[in-house]
């Protein structure tokens, strides 16, 4: 039994260190709040954790028989480790491809833009014509303004694409502008919490409580919805300087 526990503990330690390095690097680089919540990657992380910290070490504990020939034992552990690495690689690739790249204000809301939202042709076009905002593999999340183009034909084309489930302007870096340039539009679209259309009555009640707990007035025009793959957050701004005061969960 002692031999099995030792093998299980060593496997658990190695798996834990590797998983911590990968998830820690992704979190510190791209998924810091509110990115992790808006990207809704909890399910992927849970699966990775179960495979690497539960299933793998437990299987090692089961097959770690001190009477088994050492070569056979090493072979079995190598097979378990290989399956773990494949699962870890798949999960890591999913998180990498979905990493947050932009926090975009467009029209009347904030939106999370993830790496897989931007098609390769959009990346190439932005790199040629709008390099300042073009995404790269090393790009960290940036606040940007993504207004619809002034040209009516282009504008209508993008709106039709978004309505039909295609690309929206927030996934087209060639239209991006500096965050500071969009602040007047941000201020114009700030609304009171009670006027938010993205939250139910019960959620607004909870948000009222959280605003009160944060010492923020709920009756002023200071909020925008912040949407992503998961449930939206309430972004609260200081109306005086348009700095973000809080991101509040409605659940």
Helical content band: 40-55%
| SSE pattern | HHHHEEHEHEHHEEE
Q: What characteristic shape results from the CA principal axes? A: elongated
Supply Rg. 23 Å
Kindly state the mean pLDDT as a whole number? 90
Q: Tell me the span between the first and last alpha carbons.
A: 45 Å
Q: What structural class should be given to the helix and strand makeup?
A: alpha/beta
Estimated share of beta-strand residues: 5-15%
Taking strands numbered 1, 2, ... along the chain, how are they ordered across the largest sheet?
A: 4-3-1-2-5-6-7
Counted beta strands: 7
- What's the helix count? 8
Q: List the uncertain runs.
A: none
Tell me the domain tally. 3
Main sheet record: 7 strands, mixed
Topology:
Layout: H1 2-31, H2 35-39, H3 42-63, H4 70-97, E1 100-106, E2 109-114, H5 120-129, E3 142-145, H6 152-163, E4 177-178, H7 183-189, H8 201-213, E5 223-227, E6 233-237, E7 244-249
Parallel strand pairs: 1-3, 2-5
Antiparallel strand pairs: 1-2, 3-4, 5-6, 6-7
In words, what does this structure look like?
The chain has 251 residues and is of the alpha/beta class. It folds into 3 domains: 2-97, no CATH class; 102-188, no CATH class; 190-251, no CATH class. 51% of the residues lie in helices and 14% in strands. The chain has 8 helices and 7 strands, in the order ααααββαβαβααβββ. It has helices spanning 2-31, 35-39, 42-63, 70-97, 120-129, 152-163, 183-189, 201-213; strands spanning 100-106, 109-114, 142-145, 177-178, 223-227, 233-237, 244-249. A 7-stranded mixed sheet has the order 4-3-1-2-5-6-7. The longest helix has 30 residues, at 2-31. The radius of gyration is 23 Å and the shape is elongated. The mean pLDDT is 90.
